[in-house]
């Protein structure tokens, strides 16, 4: 996978934040990119492969099947998800509490299921963006079911890897767990809520999480991960401002 030219990549959740940075970086690396989002997006002229935009609801199982059938990707990156309702448990409703289960987990389930059923070509890579919140001992107490939903995405990626291995499909499934990325919608909401809970200004709170993750760093990390030899790829990585770190 070192040369990405001609290897189509679908990036789900590409209109903003980490997804936008990942779509841009893959295109700059030579991959024809299909950027999937519910809202229109603009991308820079990468000087390499064009970025084709598909406006669709990635949580609809028909969308996963249709886009995989039409574009025949060898790389699928799932970044899309709901911005959690940042309130303590007693100020949540079931609808706000379960938002990330109904969006993030649903997307991972449908797309990984379709990647196995189609299946994607031998040597394909599927990267599922979970969250570093899934590693916290106390979860993410101000974001409802967010931490649990993101942990489940990691499990789903592992389940898919087991099924692919057992069937000899040659597809690599990987979970990436990003830490705070304050320039993104989800990241900014979390930073503001937890800074207020700690009685800190946002800038003071962020000093404890340096170096900060950006869409550009995420893009480079995914390109490096997709290019890496499959035999050296581990099931899950933490992603922060210093790049990827393998999880045992």
UniProtKB/TrEMBL annotation:
Gene3D superfamilies reported for this sequence: NAD(P)-binding Rossmann-like Domain
Signal peptide: none
InterPro entries cross-referenced by the UniProt entry: KR_dom (IPR057326), NAD(P)-bd_dom_sf (IPR036291), SDR_fam (IPR002347)
Domain Ketoreductase: 7-179
Keywords associated with the record: Oxidoreductase
PANTHER family given in the database record: 5-KETO-D-GLUCONATE 5-REDUCTASE, ALCOHOL DEHYDROGENASE, PUTATIVE (AFU_ORTHOLOGUE AFUA_3G03445)-RELATED
Family: Belongs to the short-chain dehydrogenases/reductases (SDR) family.
Protein name per Swiss-Prot or TrEMBL: SDR family oxidoreductase
